[in-house]
Amino acid sequence: MAVTIDPDLTAGQLAPRLERLFELSAQKILSLERTRGPGEGTPVFTVKGRYTSRGWTEWTQGFQFGSALLQFDATGEKRFWELGRRRTLERMAPHVSHMGVHDHGFNNVSTYGNLRRLMREGKARHDARELELCELALKVSGAVQAARWTRTVDGGGFIYSFNGPHSLFIDTLRSLRSLAVAHQLGHGLMGEQDARISLLGRLMDHARATAAHNVYYGENRDAYDVPGRVAHEAVFNVNNGSFRCPNSQQGYSPFSTWTRGLAWAILGFAEQLEFFRILSEQTLEEALHDGDRRPTNRDAPRGGRRLRKPAEGTALQPRSIRRWMLRAATVTADYYLATACADGIPMWDTGAPNLHRLGDYGSRAADPFNAWEPVDSSAAAIAAQGLVRLGHYLAGQGDAGGGRRYRQAGLTVARALLAEPYLSTRASHQGLLLHSVYHRPSGWDYVAPGQKVPNGESSMWGDYHLRELALLLWREARGETYLAFFDDAAMALASDASRRHSRASK
């Protein structure tokens, strides 16, 4: 089984599908805005085509309002700018100071971050006071996220999940964007006795812990050490910071791979590689010596075993950071491409108990209506963006062959998502991306009459990430600047095409 990569597909060839997506996207955003008031809670996933809430944790509100801002970016329709801007300013403040979640990059970079980016790119009216407000929100968000800190035995640490200080989630890689943006804005976390803690330092420590404990490399760390496999959760002893075991909250088991977690790894590492490309060695060196670390135990266990060469794979030195990030990104990307179906859509978990009933399912296109196990289109949307970004990064580093392989894989997955049965074309369905799965073990996903597994429904994160993937490709097809969450001198100024698009929207 393996994804059948189209070597000749281009973003330009996908332009008609991208245009169709944003036409449908506009309808979905406005439908949700008309029918769902603030008193009904944050929309999370659909049941019978209507968005509903689920009281578990507040992590999807930013996707709702951020979607309107992505829509404006793609189309220039000012009503979506006003909608995303107004709702962000009205409703997102509690998420900025939310101490109880690991989701600041999801909620706040998707809203305040997109507002700031659009103003800086010249696509939206530059309001100095609102820009300052967005930057203040992003500074606070990054610091609050970094304060959820558990120290590890090797002197580093990680941002712990809403499960508690013992819990390192793979998802949080994408929330590292909040620390990156706040760092670029010159902010830090103030600790006891006015200690200033580097947000970049904590970002690096968290990424390192994730690469070491949530990602497998085929090094015999346990009996299920398959290269590229990902554990949703790594569990630590909070008394001494030592790693204890893998776990999974939303996957089938600790020793199989929940594919949305795999997708978070691909995108999270690829996006951080893009960010670290613009950082100088001096900047990295300063972050590594900000005094936040305890003396490092160089014989600290990684993934349940001791490393003979502690610097191997996960050393936290300026010259090695990009290397182990790239290793984590490529090994997870390769595992995704080896285990997804031929069209690039994955099953929800690589070890789901009834996969054997599907036969050689990986040799053909995914069937979301099969009777045994659901697919997860949201994992595909997240992974596709990660694959495109990884390809872009490698090409920029001179690896034309590797860059092309991952980029073409991402485009191949995108093509499948931009058409039925994944693209939601019915006006009565509020979701944009069909066949998304939320929490299979808990049974939260709706199973329609006559079906045996969840299908036909959407999620806020799936819809948002499909829009974000589409915007990345749409901007490329139109000759606009590369979409990035951070400030880069090479990306900060909009291209001529972007400026023309901005003037036309006004």
Tags for this model:
globular, two-stranded antiparallel ribbon, 46% helix, mainly alpha, 506 residues, Glycosyltransferase, single chain, three-stranded antiparallel sheet
Q: Mind explaining what this structure looks like?
A:
The chain is mostly helical. The chain has a single domain (12-495), classed as Alpha/alpha barrel (Glycosyltransferase). Helix content is 46%, strand content 7%. The chain is built from 17 helices and eleven strands. The protein has helices at 15-35, 61-75, 78-91, 93-96, 104-107, 109-121, 128-147, 176-184, 199-213, 259-277, 281-288, 318-339, 377-396, 400-417, 460-477, 489-492, 496-505, and strands at 45-47, 50-52, 149-151, 157-159, 167-169, 189-190, 196-197, 233-237, 242-247, 301-302, 305-306. The strands form five sheets. It has a three-stranded antiparallel sheet, with helices on one face. A hairpin with a 5-residue loop joins β3 (149-151) and β4. α13 (377-396) runs antiparallel to α14. The longest helix has 22 residues, at 318-339. The N and C termini lie far apart (49 Å). Mean pLDDT is 92; it is low at 295-302, 304-313 and 490-506.
List the helices and strands and how they pair.
Layout lengths: L14 H21 L9 E3 L2 E3 L8 H15 L2 H14 L1 H4 L7 H4 L1 H13 L6 H20 L1 E3 L5 E3 L7 E3 L6 H9 L4 E2 L5 E2 L1 H15 L19 E5 L4 E6 L11 H19 L3 H8 L12 E2 L2 E2 L11 H22 L37 H20 L3 H18 L42 H18 L11 H4 L3 H10 L1
Helix pairs in contact: 1-2, 1-15, 2-3, 2-6, 2-15, 6-7, 7-8, 8-9, 9-12, 10-12, 10-13, 12-13, 13-14, 13-15
